[in-house]
Amino acid sequence: MSEQKQTRAGFVALIGEPNAGKSTLTNAMVGAKVSIVTHKVQTTRARIRGVAMQGDSQLVLVDTPGLFRPRRNLDRAMVKAAWSGAADADIVVLLIEAHRGKTDGVDAILAALKERNVEGQKVALAINKIDRIPRDRLLALTAEMSKEFDFAQIFMVSAEKGYGVDDLKAWLAGRVPEGPWMYPEDQIADLPLRMIAAEITREKLTLRLHQELPYQLTVETESWEERKDGSVRIDQIIYVMRDGHKGIALGPKGETIKAVSMAAREELTEFLGRKVHLFLQIKVRPNWLDEAERFTEMGLDIKDGG
């Protein structure tokens, strides 16, 4: 009998301030787009799990919402989700931006990590966007962070350009616990396809609308119909908070919603590897931010925001 190979599997939580690059790093390590990436902060609302393979190791990446000072119910639920994801993980990776350095927000996260002090949990530091500052400043920041916390390892990366990502991934693969894989080898995320589709559309809306209303809308996949020709029909609802927001999302002569629909359909076609028929509707729901079913759709718990 041939000897069975020893596999490893574990949860890796990526934490940090909003826009630190957690979603980009998740996608880079998975090798596919499983997490929404925009230039807007606070776009990751649920703990999106990407599944990355490295040799005989399976890394389940928990891309948490950015940690910030919460004001609304949704904010509080997002921050609770982030810390819950960190507490449940085998390894935590704190991501900071090289050019911003040790900010007040980073100090607050470090203080919380020291206070939580989960027994046996390794915490690594990844300094992201290293291409934005000179080497001497990078070394000084590394020394400064080393004094603040006893990190298991420090990595210098550019998640966007791929620098240092393989080194971080290899280190994580060697340190997750021995055990069977939690997901099939070809699975890249544990989110339902309906939610991934909604996230893709929400990303396109966020990019298109810029400052106008990115945090006051959400997208839900209402129906998913598999067709006999192998294509799929996806019906989605965009919920906005006011009538005026509906006009912004539609755009002049419906141009904005048409452009969003086209961009989302193209990405969904590439992601699913088959033809997609995408139909979008916009509905006004003034209190969607406080409705339990909206939180559930985003993988959050409304009780965490109360």
UniProtKB/TrEMBL annotation:
Region: G4, residue numbers: 128-131
Keywords: Cell membrane, Cytoplasm, GTP-binding, Membrane, Nucleotide-binding, Ribosome biogenesis, RNA-binding, rRNA-binding
Any single biological process term in GO: ribosomal small subunit assembly
Pfam families the UniProt entry points to: KH_2 (PF07650), MMR_HSR1 (PF01926)
Subcellular location: Cytoplasm; Cell membrane
Binding site for GTP: 16-23, 63-67, 128-131
Domain of life where this protein originates: Bacteria
Protein name according to UniProt: GTPase Era
Species of the source: Pontivivens nitratireducens
Gene name linked to the record: era
